[in-house]
Structure formats: structure tokens, C-alpha cells
Amino acid sequence: MPVELDFVIDSMRGRGIYTKYKMLFITFILVLIFIALMNTYLTCRQLLAENHKWWWRSSSPLDLKIAK
């Protein structure tokens, strides 16, 4: 919703007319960059904690824990 609001406000001010597909693509790229940075940060944090079993931790808090 905030992306669409920015799209409307920028179009009204005349800064630039972007199509919804361009905005969707830019948002998608920003989300991918954010996910990559968060993965890097969390992995480095686990490694700095010197936890040798860090790879067994789930990345999802909603993990079903089917295999025990």
C-alpha cells in the first residue's frame, strides 16, 4: 500500500511517471536485496556466537518439525 501511495503522490507532483510494473519490479529487487542482507547478517551472527550446531537451526519460526 505505501508503494502505491508514493506512486500516486510522485505522479501528481510531476517527478516522474512510473508504470505499476516498474514499481513492482523495483519493489521486488529491494525485497531481494533486503532478504540477502538479512540472511548474511543472521548467518554472521550465528557464526560469531561460535555455535557449532548453527546449521541445524531452522530459518522459519513456523517450522512444523515433522522429522525428529
TrEMBL record:
It is found in: Endosome membrane; Golgi apparatus membrane. Coiled coil: none annotated. InterPro entries: EMP70 (IPR004240). Keywords: Endosome, Golgi apparatus, Membrane, Signal, Transmembrane, Transmembrane helix. GO terms for cellular component: endosome membrane; Golgi membrane. It holds the Pfam family EMP70. It is a multi-pass membrane protein. The chain crosses the membrane at residues 21-42. Belongs to the nonaspanin (TM9SF) (TC 9.A.2) family. This is Nonaspanin. The lineage of its organism: Eukaryota, Viridiplantae, Streptophyta, Embryophyta, Tracheophyta.
